[in-house]
Write a structure and sequence with these properties.
The complex is a heterotrimer. Chain A is an all-alpha fold. Chain A contains 26 helices and 5 strands. In chain A, β1 and β2 (72-76) form a beta hairpin. Chain B is built from 12 helices and 1 strand; from the N terminus they run αααβααααααααα. The longest helix of chain B is centred in the middle third of the chain and has 32 residues, at 123-154. The chains are: A mainly alpha, B mainly alpha, C mainly alpha. The interface between A and B is large, with 86 and 85 residues. β3 of chain A pairs parallel with β1 of chain B, so a sheet runs across the interface.
C-alpha cells in the first residue's frame, strides 16, 4: 500500500511541470499548477515515507517490460524510506521558494523548463531510492543526472554556468560508467540484475573488492567525496538558489544511498575498508572546510561546506563498517545513526543556507561577499534564518548539527574507550580532525555571516537591499523549524533511525536501540537550560538598559572618530590567517599590482583560491591529451564534399567486402 | 542526600563566585614579579560591580547579534561549568559524551562573541575575531586529542570519571607519562583559549597585538561586564580540569578536598602569573606551531596508552 | 515481355539523364533533369506494378507531383532568392566527373550481375540503374561547390534508392514508399532554408566557406 502511494507521489511530481508547457510564456497559471501538483505530491510522498519508515515495513513490486531481464523491480524498505523523506521535504520547500524567487513573469524564457526539470528531478530521485534492480536504478539515475544538468544550466547565457555544466556532465557520466561496470559485474556474479546479496564464496576473490571500488568511484563522484568533488563548487554556485538547495541537499545524498545499498549486497568487509572510509571522510571534511575558507562567493562557500559535510557522513559510514567488521553492534549503530541523521540534518540546514543566500542575491543582487555587508538591517528575517542555519551547520548545541556529530563522536570515543583492541585502535586519531573541521566551520561561518549581514554596507547594492517576499521566508522558516525541532527533541527521530539500523546492520547480536546508547534526557535538559539561561541573561541586560533609551553613536574603534565602510574587515581579510597557514594546500593566487609610482593610477587587487583538482590535475591532463591528438586534426578540415567522399568510400568498401573484388574483375573481363 | 545537596550548592557557589578571584591572584603574582604592590585581590569584583552600574552605549552599526554575543558566551560558559568535576567531587551533570558537549558549548560562546565583534564593523574587532577563530581551530584539535587520551586512559566517556581516573588508576609506567603529556598540552590550551601570554597579552594596549581584547573594544557597561565574567569562568573551568591532572589525589574528608581544590586553583593561577611574567608573547605566526606541538604531545600520549 | 522491355528503356533513359546531370553546367538544366527523372520513376512504378492497384496509382501521382513539380519549384525559388550565378562550379572539372560517373555505372553493372535476384527481375536493369543513380548523386554531392547543386545531388541519391525499391513494389508496404517520399520532401525543404541562411551569412553559396565553422 505504501509503495503504491509512493508511486502516485512520484507520478504527481514528475508531471507537475508538464501542464505549464501548455500555457504561454507570459502566463503565471502554469507556475501555480506546477507548484500545487509538486507540493501535493511531495507532501503525500513525505508522509507515506515517514509512516512506512517508523512502521518498518518492506514492500516490493515489479513491472514487466518487453524483455524478462529488463523488468523493473521496486522495493520500499526503511533505508529507502529514510532517503525519500528529505527528497520530498526539500522539493516542497524549493517549490514554495521558487514561486516567488523564479517567477514566470520575470524569467519567461526558462521558467517552464526549470519547473519541468524540477519535478522530473524529484520524481527520479525518489525512483532511485525505490529501485530494487540494476536497470531501474540506472534508468532513474540517468534521468536525475540529466534533469539536474538542465536545472543547473538554467542561466546558460553566462559562460561560467556553461563551463560548470560541462564539468558536471563529465563527472556524472564518468560515475555512471563506473556504475554500469558495477552492475554488470554484479550480474555476472549473482546471475540477475536484482539487488540480491552476493552468495558467499561463489565469486572469485578480489571480485568483492572490485565491486566496492567501482561503487566508491561511481557513487563518490555523485556524492562529492574528495578528490572526486571537483564538479561540485562551480555547479552548485551557478545554479539558481532553490536548485542549489536541492542539489546540495538531496542529489549528493543519493550517492551515499547508493553506497549504503551496495554495502547491503556485499559480505562483511575487512577492517581496512571501514578505516579507509573513515580516513577519507575525515580528510574530505577538513579539505572541504579549508577550501570554503578561501572563497568569497557566498554560494561557492556553501558548496565547499557540502563537501565537508559529506566527509562527515562518510566518517559515520566508515565507523559503522568498522563496527560491523569488529562485531560491535554498538559502534555500528552509532556510526550508522550519525551518518543517516547527518544526511537529514545536512539536507535541512544546507537547504536553509542556500535559500537564504538566494534571498540575499534577490535582495542585494550579488553573491560576492566583499560587496555585501550590513544586510541584517534591511533583511532582518533572512539574517536570523541564516544565523540559525550557520549555527546548525557548525554543530552548535541546541541545534540539529550537534546531535548527528555527537553520535559520530560517541562511536569513535567508544572505539577508544571500550578497551577492545584491534586494528581499529588508531581510528580515534580522526576525532581531532573532526573537531578541527568543526572549529574551522565556525571560523568560516562567522566570516560569512559577519561579512554579509553585519558591519557596514560595503557597496551601493548592499545599501539598497530589500527583504525577500514572504513566500521565500516561509520556505526558509519551515526548514529552520526542522533544524530546531531535531535539535531540541532528538528522541523523536530515534525510532526512525532504529528501524534503518535494524535492517542494515546484520550481526549476530542485534544492535541496541539508540535510546540506550545516547543519554538523551540530560542532553535535552542542558539544551533547555541553555535557552532559558540565555533568555534570562538577555532579559537582565534589557532591564538594565530600560532606564531611558541607550545612547547610540558611531563605532568606538579605539577612538577613531570617522569610521568608514572600507575600514571594516572584509571576508578575505578575515580568512587570511588560516588561508596563509594552509597555503601549501590551498595555493591561493593573487592578481593585481601594488601601486608604485608617485601618483599612481587606480589599482585593484584580487585573490582567489582555485579549484585544485580541476585546475591542477584535470586541466593539465586534458591539455596533454589534446596535444597528442593534434596530428589527427588534419582529418577535420570542414569541407563537406570531402566528408561525403569519406561516406562514399566507406560504402564502396562495404559493398566490395560483400562481393569479392576478384569476381567483379573476372566478370568484367568475361562480359 | 544532604551531602549531595551540599556538594551541589558548593559547586554552584564556586562556579558563580570564584572565577574573578583567579584573575586577582594572577594580577597580584605579576605585580609581585615586577616589584609592585599591584591591584587588590578583589579588584575584578569591584570592576564588575562598577560596570553593571554603568550605562551602555551602542554603535549604530550593530544589531541584535552584538547584544547576543556576551549573553550567549556567559550562558554557555556557566552551563559548561555544570559538566566539570571540581576536585574530588562529581560534576552535577555527568553523562556519556558530555565532553563533546563541553567543547561545543565553548564553541557556541566563541561563535557569538566573534560574530558580535564583526557586528561593529570596526577594523580592530574584525582583526581580533579573525585571530581568535583561527587559533581556536587548532586549540580545539589539541583539546580533543587530550580528551581522547584521557578516554583511553580511563575507559569512560564522561568528564567526571575521565578526570577522576588519575586519582585511582596507577600513574607509573607509560600510561602515567601519557597523563603528564596531556597535562602539558592542556596547559597550553588553557593559555590559548583564555588569551594569556604566550598566545596573547591581556595587558597590551596596542590593538595590533591583541586577540581577545581587540574583540571586545566596543562593548560597554553590563555587556562588557558579562564578557569579562564569561572569560573568567572559562579560565576557571579549564584550570579546574587541569588541576585533576596535576594533583591527582584525594584527602578523604570533603572539607579538606574543597580546600585542596581552592588552593590548587590558586596555585595554577600563580603558575599562570609566573608564566606571564617570565615569558614574552610569541609572534603571532608562531602560535600555530605551539598549538600543533601540544596536539602532537597528545598524539604521543595516545600511542603511549596504546602500548 | 513488352512491359519489361519498356521498363528497361525507361531505365536507360534514367542512366542517360544521370550522365547529362554530371556534364551540364547550368543549374536550371540540372533541376529540369531531376524533374524528368521523377517522371521516369513514376513511369517505372506504373509499368512494374502488376496489376495496378489504387495505391500504386496514388503513389505514382504523388511521385510525379512531388519530384517533378513541387520540389523543382522549391529549388527554383531558392535559386531566385539566392541571386547567384546560374552556373555549376565543379571541383574536378566536367570531363573527369563524367568519366567517374561512367565508371560508376560500369561497376554497378558488374556488381548487379553477381546478385541473387528473383527470376523475373534478372533481365531488368533496375539494380544497375539504382546504383548508378546513387553514384551520380554522390558525385554531385562531392564534386560540386554550390549548395543548391548539393541539394539536387541529394535528390538524385534518393531517386536511386527509390529505383531500388521498385524491386519490392509488390512486397513493400505502401507506408515505406510514402515514407521515402516524405523523407525527400522534408530534406529538400530543410536544405532550401539552409541555402537561404548560407547566402545570408556568407553572401555566396560556396560551401567551402562552411569550413570556417569548424572551430
Amino acid at each position: 500500500m505504501y509503495l503504491d502511494l509512493c508511486l502516485v507521489a512520484i507520478l504527481l511530481t514528475a508531471v507537475s511541470g508538464v501542464p505549464g508547457l501548455g500555457f504561454g510564456r507570459r502566463s503565471a497559471v502554469g507556475q501555480g499548477i506546477a507548484s500545487l501538483l509538486l507540493v501535493a505530491g511531495a507532501l503525500l510522498g513525505a508522509a507515506t515515507a515517514l509512516v512506512a519508515l517508523t512502521s518498518g515495513t518492506i514492500e516490493t513490486s515489479s513491472f514487466c517490460g518487453a524483455l524478462p531481464e529488463l523488468a523493473l523491480h521496486l522495493r520500499l524498505d526503511p533505508l529507502a524510506a529514510f532517503f525519500l523523506v528529505p527528497v520530498y521535504v526539500l522539493g516542497a520547500a524549493g517549490t514554495l521558494y521558487g514561486g516567488r524567487y523564479w517567477r514566470q513573469a520575470e524569467h519567461p524564457e526558462n521558467g517552464r523548463k526549470l519547473r519541468l526539470c524540477f519535478g522530473l528531478l524529484i520524481a527520479s530521485l525518489a525512483a532511485v531510492a525505490l529501485a530494487a534492480d540494476g536497470f531501474a536504478f540506472l534508468f532513474a539515475w540517468e534521468i536525475s543526472a540529466l534533469s539536474a544538468f538542465f536545472l543547473m544550466t538554467t542561466e546558460d547565457d553566462q559562460s561560467e554556468v556553461q563551463q560548470a555544466g560541462w564539468v558536471y556532465q563529465v563527472a556524472m557520466h564518468a560515475g555512471t560508467l563506473a556504475l554500469f561496470a558495477l552492475f554488470g559485474l554484479l550480474w555476472a556474479a549473482t546471475g540477475s540484475l536484482e539487488f540480491h546479496p552476493l552468495p558467499a564464496g561463489a565469486s572469485r576473490p578480489g571480485v568483492t573488492s572490485v565491486l566496492f571500488l567501482l561503487a566508491l568511484l561511481g557513487f563518490g563522484l555523485k556524492a562529492g567525496i574528495v578528490p572526486l568533488h571537483f564538479w561540485l563548487p562551480a555547479a552548485h554556485a551557478s545554479a539558481p538558489s532553490h536548485v542549489s538547495a536541492l542539489l546540495s541537499g538531496v542529489v549528493l545524498k543519493m550517492g551515499i544511498y547508493g553506497l549504503l545499498r551496495i554495502l547491503t549486497l556485499l559480505p562483511t568487509p575487512p577492517t581496512a575498508v571501514g578505516m579507509g572510509l573513515l580516513a577519507v571522510g575525515a580528510g574530505s571534511a577538513v579539505y572541504g572546510v579549508l577550501f570554503a575558507l578561501g572563497q568569497h562567493d557566498l554560494k561557492r562557500l556553501l558548496a565547499y561546506h557540502s563537501v565537508e559535510n559529506i566527509g562527515i557522513i562518510v566518517m559515520g559510514l566508515g565507523l559503522a563498517l568498522i563496527g560491523v567488521s569488529a562485531k560491535q553492534p554498538a559502534w555500528a549503530a552509532l556510526g550508522l545513526a550519525g551518518c543517516l541523521l547527518h544526511v537529514w540534518n545536512h539536507a535541512l540546514f544546507k537547504a536553509l543556507l542556500f535559500l537564504a543566500a538566494g534571498s540575499v542575491v534577490h535582495g542585494a543582487g550579488t553573491r560576492e561577499i566583499d560587496r555585501l555587508g550590513g544586510l541584517a538591517k534591511p533583511m532582518a528575517h533572512t539574517a536570523s534564518l541564516f544565523a540559525i542555519g550557520a549555527a546548525a551547520i557548525c554543530g552548535l548545541p541546541p541545534l540539529n548539527g550537534f546531535v548527528s556529530e555527537l553520535l559520530i563522536y560517541l562511536g569513535l570515543l567508544r572505539i577508544n574507550g571500550d578497551g577492545i583492541r584491534g586494528a581499529w585502535s588508531v581510528a580515534p586519531l580522526t576525532i581531532p580532525l573532526l573537531a578541527m573541521a568543526g572549529a574551522l566551520a565556525i571560523a568560516c561561518f562567522v566570516k560569512a555571516f559577519g561579512s554579509v549581514f553585519l558591519g557596514p554596507h560595503r557597496s551601493e547594492q548592499a545599501a539598497r537591499a530589500h527583504e525577500a517576499p514572504s513566500g521565500m521566508l516561509l520556505a526558509m522558516l519551515a526548514l529552520a523549524l526542522g533544524c530546531i525541532g531535531i535539535g531540541a527533541l532528538p528522541v523523536f527521530v530515534m525510532p526512525a533511525l532504529d528501524r534503518v539500523i535494524e535492517t542494515w546492520v546484520r550481526l549476530d547480536s542485534p544492535p541496541p536501540p539508540l535510546a540506550e546508547l545516547v543519554p538523551w534526557p540530560p542532553l535535552m535538559g542542558i539544551n533547555a537550560v541553555l535557552v532559558v539561561g540565555a533568555l534570562g541573561f538577555a532579559l537582565l541586560v534589557r532591564s538594565r538598559s530600560r532606564r531611558g533609551t541607550p545612547a547610540q553613536t558611531v563605532t568606538w574603534d579605539c577612538g577613531y572618530a570617522r569610521p568608514g565602510s572600507s575600514m571594516a574587515y572584509t571576508a578575505s581579510s578575515f580568512a587570511q590567517i588560516l588561508v596563509g597557514l594552509y597555503a601549501w594546500l590551498l595555493r591561493p593566487r593573487s592578481l593585481g599590482a601594488v601601486p608604485s609610482q608617485l601618483f599612481p593610477p587606480a589599482g585593484s587587487f584580487h585573490t582567489r583560491v582555485p579549484e585544485q583538482v580541476v585546475e591542477g590535475v584535470l586541466a593539465p591532463l586534458w591539455a596533454g591529451f589534446r596535444r597528442t591528438l593534434i596530428p589527427l586534426r588534419a582529418v577535420q578540415h570542414g569541407q563537406i564534399q570531402q566528408y561525403l567522399v569519406y561516406v562514399l568510400v566507406t560504402l564502396c568498401v562495404l559493398l566490395a567486402s560483400l562481393h569479392p573484388l576478384g569476381d567483379i574483375l573476372l566478370r568484367m573481363l568475361g562480359w | 542526600m544532604v551531602k549531595a545537596f551540599a556538594t551541589l550548592l558548593i559547586h554552584f557557589a564556586l562556579l558563580t563566585a570564584a572565577p574573578p578571584l583567579l584573575l586577582g591572584v594572577i594580577n597580584k603574582t605579576k605585580a609581585w614579579f615586577a616589584g609592585r604592590r599591584g591591584p587588590p585581590l578583589l579588584q575584578a569584583y569591584y570592576d564588575l560591580a562598577r560596570l553593571f552600574r554603568k550605562e551602555m552605549v551602542f554603535s549604530r552599526t550593530t544589531t541584535w547579534v552584538f547584544r547576543a554575543g556576551p549573553v550567549v558566551g556567559v550562558s554557555a560558559a556557566l552551563l559548561a561549568g555544570l559538566l566539570v568535576p571540581f576536585g574530588a567531587f562529581d560534576a552535577p551533570v555527568a553523562f556519556t559524551g558530555d565532553l563533546v558537549l563541553f567543547a561545543y558549548l565553548m564553541a557556541l560562546g566563541r561563535f557569538f562573541t566573534t560574530a558580535a565583534a564583526l557586528d561593529t564593523g570596526s577594523a580592530f574587532e574584525g582583526m581580533g575575531a579573525a585571530r581568535e577563530v583561527s587559533f581556536a581551530s587548532l586549540a580545539e584539535a589539541a583539546l580533543f586529542m587530550a580528551f581522547v587520551v584521557l578516554v583511553r586512559f580511563s575507559g569512560s566517556l564522561s568528564l567526571t570519571p575521565m578526570f577522576h581516573a588519575p586519582m585511582t588508576a596507577p600513574l607509573h609506567g607509560l600510561p602515567g607519562a601519557a597523563v603528564f603529556l596531556v597535562a602539558v598540552a592542556l596547559f597550553v590550551v588553557l593559555l590559548a583559549e583564555n588569551a594569556r601570554v604566550p598566545v596573547d597579552d591581556p595587558n597590551t594596549h596596542l590593538e595590533l597585538t591583541m586577540i581577545h581584547e581587540a574583540m571586545v573594544l566596543d562593548h560597554s557597561g553590563p555587556l562588557f561586564g558579562l564578557i569579562l565574567y564569561g572569560a573568567a569562568v572559562k579560565l576557571f573551568l579549564l584550570s579546574a580540569l587541569l588541576l585533576h591532572l596535576l594533583l591527582p589525589f584525594s584527602l578523604g574528608a570533603p572539607l579538606l578536598d574543597w580546600l585542596l581544590f581552592v588552593a590548587g586553583l590558586g596555585a595554577i593561577a600563580v603558575g599562570i602569573g609566573v608564566v606571564e611574567s617570565i615569558m614574552a608573547r610569541l609572534r603571532l605566526r608562531y602560535v600555530p606551531s605551539l598549538l600543533i606541538a601540544s596536539a602532537i604531545l597528545c598524539v604521543f600520549g595516545f600511542f603511549l596508552t596504546l602500548a | 515481355m513488352l512491359r519489361l522491355y519498356s521498363v528497361n528503356l525507361v531505365l536507360v533513359g534514367v542512366l542517360l539523364l544521370n550522365l547529362f546531370m554530371l556534364g551540364t553546367s547550368r543549374i536550371r538544366g540540372l533541376i529540369q533533369a531531376a524533374a524528368l527523372q521523377g517522371v521516369a520513376l513514376a513511369a517505372i512504378l506504373l509499368l512494374m506494378a502488376d496489376p495496378i492497384g489504387w495505391n500504386t496509382a496514388l503513389l505514382a501521382i504523388a511521385t510525379v507531383v512531388l519530384k517533378s513539380s513541387v520540389i523543382p519549384r522549391m529549388l527554383r525559388r531558392a535559386l531566385r532568392e539566392a541571386q547567384i550565378k546560374r552556373e555549376v562550379e565543379p571541383l574536378i572539372g566536367f570531363a573527369p566527373t563524367m568519366l567517374l560517373g561512367a565508371l560508376g555505372t560500369l561497376l554497378s553493372l558488374a556488381f548487379a550481375s553477381g546478385l541473387p535476384l528473383v527470376p523475373q527481375h534478372q533481365e531488368l536493369l533496375i539494380v544497375p540503374a539504382s546504383f548508378s543513380t546513387v553514384v551520380t548523386g554522390f558525385l554531385l554531392l562531392t564534386t560540386r561547390i554550390k549548395a543548391i547543386t548539393q541539394a539536387i545531388g541529394y535528390l538524385v541519391l534518393e531517386n536511386g534508392i527509390f529505383i531500388f525499391g521498385m524491386l519490392l513494389v509488390d512486397a513493400m508496404p505502401f507506408l515505406v514508399e510514402i515514407g521515402v517520399l516524405l523523407d525527400v520532401f522534408v530534406g529538400i525543404f530543410v536544405v532550401s532554408i539552409i541555402i537561404h541562411h548560407i547566402q545570408r551569412e556568407f553572401a555566396s553559396l560556396d560551401t567551402r566557406h562552411l569550413a570556417s565553422l569548424k572551430e
